[in-house]
Amino acid sequence: MGTVTKRVSADGRVRYRAQVRIRTDKVNFSDSKTFSKKSLATEWIKKRELEIEANPKIIETGEIKYPTLNDAICRYLNEAENFGRTMQAGLRFLTSFPIGKKKLDKLTRQDFAEHVMLRKRGVGNVAPIQASTALHELQHISSLYNHAIFVWGYDLDKKELTMAIAGLKKSRIIAKSSKRDRLPTADELQKLNNFFYERWISSDTKIPMHLIMWFAIYTCRREKEITELKLINFNQSSMDWLVENIKHPNGSIGNNKNFHVTEQAFRVINELMKPEIKKRMCIENTDLLIPFDAKTIGTYFRRACKLLAIDDLRFHDLRHEGATRLAEQGLNIPQIQQITLHESWSSLQRYVNLSKRTDILDFENALKISKEVI
């Protein structure tokens, strides 16, 4: 099917023309390319024949039309499901940069490196990003490449992307996220509790953030998990609560697990289930414990921290605070796992051998103080 023809140009240079031809009653396909060495021409023929075997439509259309990165992202997001918010937003954001206009098969390590440097410098109204965010963007592209190769049948070589990631890591331009160790102080928790409690009693807000905050600490649950806990999944006799579709790198659908409800968490649950609070939250006709959008809870928390001048504290840090408290109470890693539902011991290793803090604020004392000062 493939032939190599030696040719000598007018200036005496030797060139090798590789040609792949397929002729049948219905098909008259021909493709060729010229090389400086016979070995390169032979290698091209082998590669071209493999491409045709994997994608027979090539001989009908003449060539596979590879999409731009932008078009591939749109198709990927439409076809694949169960993406986390971070990955969805990250992929969509990529379409606003020059790299998105390039064809998938034409992207080089230089393209990936230039994109990372552009993102780290910042452009227009888009602020510079950290090394870990840059790595995440390249990892998102890698996931898209895998889908394009295995599902769409594209003959893509990830070598350029792999080499770009390796080189940028070696020069420390991109890197994994450093382990976050920010925990709220007792004073910060009291300020937040006062703020949220004052809003609860003096406004018509339906979200009892002063309770949700402590529920997050005592259950070690993520924002999204908190807002999707079903009352029917709480087994009070065993003090276990089933969490459906827990976040997981391999997909969350069907990843359901029970976490142990501690006495402290149960006391907060009882507060949330009081008739007057249920009515205010409008959960009388729902099967959810906290029927609010996770983004809304996160927004309320960030606004409060900003107004109270509490720097660099995130809602997710409450999960770390909860795990830290469990370790300080003397629980071992398997016992902590029953509550946090971390899969690996390494994720919890930093909580081992902690020196116990002396200024731990609990829910009852915080609420008592808030009622006294407001």
UniProtKB/TrEMBL annotation:
InterPro entries: DNA_brk_join_enz, Integrase-like_cat_sf, Integrase_catalytic, Tyrosine_recombinase_XerCD. One of its GO terms (molecular function) is DNA binding. One of its GO terms (biological process) is DNA integration. Keywords: DNA integration, DNA recombination. The keyword Zinc does not apply. This is Integrase. Pfam families: Phage_integrase. Signal peptide: none annotated. Residues 178-368 form the Tyr recombinase domain.
